[in-house]
Amino acid sequence: LEAAVVQPIILPVEERFSAPPDRYVLSVLGEVPSGEPPDPKKCSPQEYLEFYVFPVLLPGLAALLQEAEKEKCFEGKRTKFIPSDFLTEWLYNNNPKRKDESFTELFSIPFVKDWLKDHPRPPTPLSLLLSEQEASILIQSFWRGYRVRCDSEIQELRQWQKKLREERHITEVVKKFWTKQEAK
């Protein structure tokens, strides 16, 4: 059993982080390596990545990081920015096969539409949609309203309105009104 268990290879720290100089070095963003492109169905995974994936994906990741910085994603824990959505939209619109076509928003992309039909998204929480200023205005207005409703005179007025509504059967009057309106 001991022989069957694979023992981890422990390398000294210098060997772990000292890769050959030409390895792990990313080429210039969007630049295809020099030479004849290999056959995508017969080449090695490394060649496929270097010739077909990285020249498209790396500029997309760079644009993603710029957009994330613009959306202030690195400043707080929560944000409305969804990186996978941005990257999907960017890759779709920068596909070399779609050079002459106009920009397409994420939710207008055909395969995204199909996916969302079967897997609808939950609504985005209001806390992510509001700016700090809008949120503070909502909180302040709620607090002011609460403080006003706590006032004894306002409490008395609300009790009087409630009693009046009950005495005059306002809910029934409103129902009758709307049935008449719908009948017209």
Name the overall outline: elongated
What integer is the average pLDDT? 82
What is the gyration radius calculated from CA atoms? 31 Å
Taken together, the total number of domains comes to 2
Total of DSSP H or I helical runs spanning 4+ residues: 8
Name the structural class.
mainly alpha
Q: Main beta sheet: strand number and arrangement?
A: none
**Estimated share of beta-strand residues:** under 5%
The poorly predicted ranges are 1-9, 13-27
Element string (H = helix, E = strand): HHHHHHHH
Report the strand count.
Answer: 0
Percent in helix? 55-70%
Span between termini: 86 Å
Quick structural summary:
With 184 residues, the protein is mainly alpha-helical.
Describe the structure.
The radius of gyration is 31 Å and the shape is elongated. The protein is built from 8 helices and no strands. The protein starts with 12 loop residues before the first helix and ends with a helix. The protein is mostly helical. InterPro entries: IQ_motif_EF-hand-BS, IQCK. This is IQCK protein.
